[in-house]
């Protein structure tokens, strides 16, 4: 659960194996809220999130390669 926190997200090479999880970050903000991820049929993953507090934030989006 994110509510004005730093990014706490992981990606996995094997979703059933907690040992294969790697920490990822898509923002250096310390105020991330409501991160959501979409994976498209071509394999592209897009992240959406808000930075800032309620009534004083902005929405962002990033596309990344699932490796870095």
What's the shape? globular
Q: How far apart are the first and last residues' alpha carbons, in Å?
A: 22 Å
Helix content: under 10%
Count of distinct structural domains: 1
Profile the largest sheet.
4 strands, antiparallel
Class computed from helices, strands and strand pairing: mainly beta
> What is the alpha-carbon Rg in Å?
13 Å
Q: How many β-strands, per DSSP?
A: 6
**In order across it, which strands form the biggest sheet?**
1-4-5-6
Instruction: Please work out how many helical segments DSSP would assign.
Output: 0
Strand portion, in percent?
over 45%
Describe this structure in words.
With 68 residues, this protein is mainly β. It has one domain. Helix content is 0%, strand content 54%. The chain has strands at residues 3-5, 9-12, 21-24, 32-39, 45-53, 56-64. The strands form 2 sheets. The chain has a 4-stranded antiparallel sheet, with no helix packed on it. The radius of gyration is 13 Å and the shape is globular. The relative contact order is 0.23.
Please write out the topology.
Elements: E1 3-5, E2 9-12, E3 21-24, E4 32-39, E5 45-53, E6 56-64
Antiparallel strand pairs: 1-4, 2-3, 4-5, 5-6
Brief descriptors of the model:
54% strand; single chain; 68 residues; mainly beta
Give a summary of the structure in a few sentences:
With 68 residues, the chain is mostly beta strands.
């Amino acid at each position: 659960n994110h509510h004005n926190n730093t990014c706490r997200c992981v990606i996995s090479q094997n979703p059933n194996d907690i040992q294969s999880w790697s920490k990822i970050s898509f923002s250096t903000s310390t105020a991330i809220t409501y991160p959501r991820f979409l994976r498209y049929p071509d394999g592209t993953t897009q992240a959406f999130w808000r930075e800032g507090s309620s009534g004083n934030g902005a929405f962002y989006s990033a596309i990344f390669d699932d490796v870095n």
